[in-house]
Specification:
Layout: E1 6-15, H1 25-29, H2 36-46, E2 55-63, E3 68-72, H3 77-85, E4 100-102, H4 104-114, H5 123-136, E5 139-141
Parallel strand pairs: 4-5
Antiparallel strand pairs: 1-2, 2-3
Helix pairs in contact: 3-4, 4-5
């Protein structure tokens, strides 16, 4: 079987189970001749085990024959940190104004969830990466 020719690779961040053919999906896929409703259906099916509304990055590979494949990534660290703390957004002045405090357990849980997409060799390194993201959001981290 010959390899299909790739015409485009798109990266989008969409809410789990709640994607619609409206922007940003339609305008991103339209120029490549890909059916937005078909992608939305498959994306929503693929994210049915993810909490509804949680932002999920997706990489869509579009081929010359107008077919496509997509790969789901783990939600951004900042989204997971906000969810763990139950806050709307990070601090506008991270070094002055603190918006919350992550426990070591919460930090480990987020690091374990993000591990497949992080460039880290072990859970300790992953935790340091997440800790840096938390600090830049104005979140204190225990230990």
């Amino acid at each position: 079987m010959a390899k299909k020719e790739v015409t485009a690779v798109l990266k989008l961040q969409l809410p789990a189970q709640q994607a619609t053919p409206a922007p940003p999906v339609g305008p991103a896929l339209g120029p490549h001749g890909v059916s937005a409703p078909q992608f939305v259906q498959q994306f929503n099916d693929a994210t049915k085990n993810v909490e509804p509304g949680l932002i999920v990055p997706v990489v869509i590979t579009i081929y010359k024959d107008r077919t496509f494949t997509f790969e789901l990534k783990t939600p951004p660290a900042a989204v997971l940190i906000k969810k763990a703390l139950g806050i709307e957004k990070g601090s506008a002045e991270p070094h002055k104004v603190k918006v919350g405090k992550l426990t070591k357990e919460q930090l480990r849980a987020i690091a374990e969830q993000k591990m497949p997409d992080l460039n880290a060799n072990d859970i300790e390194a992953a935790m340091r990466i997440i800790k840096g993201t938390a600090r830049s959001m104005g979140v204190e981290v225990e230990g």
